[in-house]
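Hi everyone, sorry if this is the wrong subforum. Our group has a chain we'd like a structural model of before ordering constructs, and none of us has done structure prediction before. Sequence below.
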Amino acid sequence: MKKLLLILVLFVALNSYAQKINWVSLEEAIELQQKEPRKIIMDFYTNWCGPCKLLDSRTFKNKNVSSYINENYYAVKFNAEGNDVINFNGNTFTNPKYDPAKANRRNNSHQLTRYFGVNAFPTIVFMDENKGLITQVKGFQTPQQLEIYLKLFHSNDYKNLKSQEDANAYFKSFKPEWN
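Answer:
Right subforum, don't worry. Here is the predicted structure as tokens:
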């Protein structure tokens, strides 16, 4: 009986920590935006990138992060060196120099990666409800570090930051709630 109870407690604890983000393609996110406008969070990753794997395992699986993203954003995970064909803003983006032999090593950048100006991995791109770029956040982010961006953009508070001093004050006064 004690073993069963222990197994049940561990199962509940692991499931509460490892909630999953509802990842969709960029095209699906755009379709969903037409029905229910939300901002888009787009994770540009590569298969070989260690910090990208940390972002997945430590940050995106955090229950606070995944829950907040699922409730307030459309989440897109995009292989920045992959070979997907993407239709966005009336353009078709491919990776014409993609080398399948390098699928898990450094490969050529996808055209969509260059379109967004992504040059480091991981990079999280935030877009508004009209597919406009808000900003990029480069590098690994802990749940607490990502929390400020998720809340800043979801609330539209970023529109009130008119100077670097405003941004510095906002970041300094922000009190993270997630662990």
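For your construct planning: The longest strand covers residues 39-45. The helical segments are 2-17, 26-35, 50-60, 63-72, 111-115, 143-154, 164-173.
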